[in-house]
Hints:
Elements: H1 6-75, H2 84-104, H3 111-118, H4 120-161
Amino acid sequence: MRAKNHKEIVNSYLKFAVFLVVTVFITVLSMFFFFRTADAEYMNIALKTREYDAIRSVQLDAVTKVDSLIDQLSLLGSNKNLNEGLLLDVVSRKKLSLQKFLENTEDENIRLHLMMVLQLSDFLRVKDSIRSVSTELRMVKEDLIRCIESNKNATVYNTEIE
């Protein structure tokens, strides 16, 4: 004894089985491509991370060298006990080594440091000019004070004679 709708039931089971297989296949295929894409993205992220680490390392080296140079520059004219010539020699050597380092590095991320180092010579000339002008101004002030003192002494001496 078969049911009257046996053919419809079998067709429904077949449709259900086909849809189930297609759904499972699409799900497995989607998961496969998802994991494959995730692996590719992970590889890209790892590559970019290595690239950024290299850039950061170069930037840290450049910043360290620039900071050292700026520390040396801040000593210029700050203490009279320092040998200015020797300090200028040290600064110029550090500037040249930093400039060579920055020019040999083909990284766009340190262009600002290179521009700053290239303009450092102008800064040193201006700082030296300011230092020489301030020294000259100090000498002129001392001469003026001595002249005023000698005029006072001469006036006092002339009033005592009269």
